[in-house]
Amino acid sequence: MSSRELASLHQRWTAYQDLPELTNHWYWRPGWRADRQFYTWHLTFEGQAELHHLVTDVQRQLALPGLDLVPLGGLHLTMQGLGFTDEVTNSDLDAVVAETRRRCAGLSPLELSLGPVDPDAEGIGLLVRPWDRVEHLRATIRGAIGEVWQTVPEAPDGFRPHVTIAYSGGQAPAGPIRTRLNALRHQPPARVTIRQATLIALRREHRSYGWTTVATTPLGA
After folding, report:
1. Which pairing describes strands 110-120 and 123-129: parallel, antiparallel, or unpaired?
2. How far, in Å, are 1, 127, 129, 134, 135 from residue 6 at the CA level?
3. DSSP state, 21?
4. Hey, which end of the chain has fewer CB within 10 Å, N or C?
5. Mean pLDDT, to the nearest integer, of 167-179?
6. For residue range 96-154, what is the model confidence (pLDDT) as tens digits?
7. What order of strands is seen across the sheet that includes strand 110-120?
8. Cβ(84)–Cβ(31) under 8 Å?
9. Distance between CA atoms of 140 and 151, rounded to whole angstroms?
10. 88, 102, 100: which is closest to 201 by C-alpha?
11. Residues 6+ apart with CB under 8 A from 142
């Protein structure tokens, strides 16, 4: 594990020890509402049996008040937002997809490790490593967007690759969850191979995220 990943995991776990209660993840962020969708690039995990086995096992032990468990089909790694669907034209969308595909054709599939558990006030994730490969893919996607728009949405820094397996559904005490997580910190991680990035139209529904796939871009031609 690289020093950055180890430092992040240690810092976040230390902060979690002093957390009195969870923060409700499901507040409305600026611009969001129930009938609005958002274009964003994600990595998704269909057919990743090793990851699904790990998540199923961990979630079985996290069926506690205050946590909304993420369905296996809803597992994702958020990469790069594009904009609300009512604010992005079809021509710009097509241009971004075409340029992203052109640039990603020169990349290789991502070999990633997911785990151990990595909690914070709004949920419980799995640490993703190595970061540099995911960061390079995100920079490639941002570069493609920059060919179409003068300003690329979202900041280039502050990105922390992670995959959430449970969201905090309310201001529940953190103590019982912290106790359960202590027993899960040393489970071996799962390995995945990511062969494409996916552009989705993301929506919120019933304390969960759902999406419609808009386009995919293979990693490697």
Report:
1. antiparallel
2. 6, 10, 10, 16, 16
3. B
4. C
5. 92
6. 999 999 999 999 999 999 999 999 999 999 999 999 999 999 999 999 999 999 999 99
7. 67-69, 162-168, 123-129, 110-120, 190-194
8. yes
9. 15
10. 88
11. 80, 152, 156
* Segment 150-172, tens digit of pLDDT: 999 999 999 999 999 999 998 88
Instruction: Give the list of residues 6+ apart from residue 2 with CB closer than 8 angstroms, or none.
Output: 129, 130, 131, 132
Assign 3-state DSSP to the chain and report helix, strand, coil percentages, each to 5: 30, 30, 35
Whether the model pTM is above 0.90: yes
Work out the burial of residue 117: count CB atoms within 10 Å of its CB; fewer than 13 is exposed, 13-18 middle, 19 or more buried: buried
Return mean pLDDT, the chain.
95
User: At residue 106, what is the residue type?
Assistant: G
Q: What is the CA 84 to chain-centroid distance, rounded? A: 18
pLDDT of residue 199: 98
